[in-house]
Amino acid sequence: MVVVLDSAGRAHLFYKSTGINSRKPGKWIPFDGIRMTKQKDGTREPWYVKYNEHLKLPEYYERISVAIKSNERNISFIETNDIDLVNAVKTYI
Predict the structure, then answer these.
(1) The dihedral of CA 80, 90, 21, 24: what is its sign?
(2) N or C end: fewer C-beta atoms under 10 angstroms in the chain?
């Protein structure tokens, strides 16, 4: 996840897509948090709550996505499976 602040100071969360649903592996896509969803076999899995039009992003989100991709090597990432942490970032930034 990457937090991007726009010129008005609003925060936008982006995640790096695996490409499984978006068919865009490696693309940075805006999202609104993570929710647990129940699978057919009864297990619960995390699900990224995606931007409504994540398959056809508005131009400004496309530009942000490209900028994140081009700067990945300069970003310090922390790997976590803590859904509460991700959702807290969304809530408190």
Answers:
(1) negative
(2) C
Instruction: Kindly tell me the burial class for residue 68, based on how many C-beta atoms sit within 10 Å of its own C-beta (0-12, 13-18, 19 or more).
Output: middle
Predicted pLDDT of residue 37: 85
Please give the pLDDT value at position 68.
94
Structure tokens at 70: 């081009």
Domain count, the chain: 1
Q: Which domain holds residue 80?
A: 2-92
Q: Which residue has the tokens 């807290």?
A: 88
| Residue 21 pLDDT exceeds 70 | yes
> Which has the closest alpha carbon to 2: 10, 73, 11, 63?
11
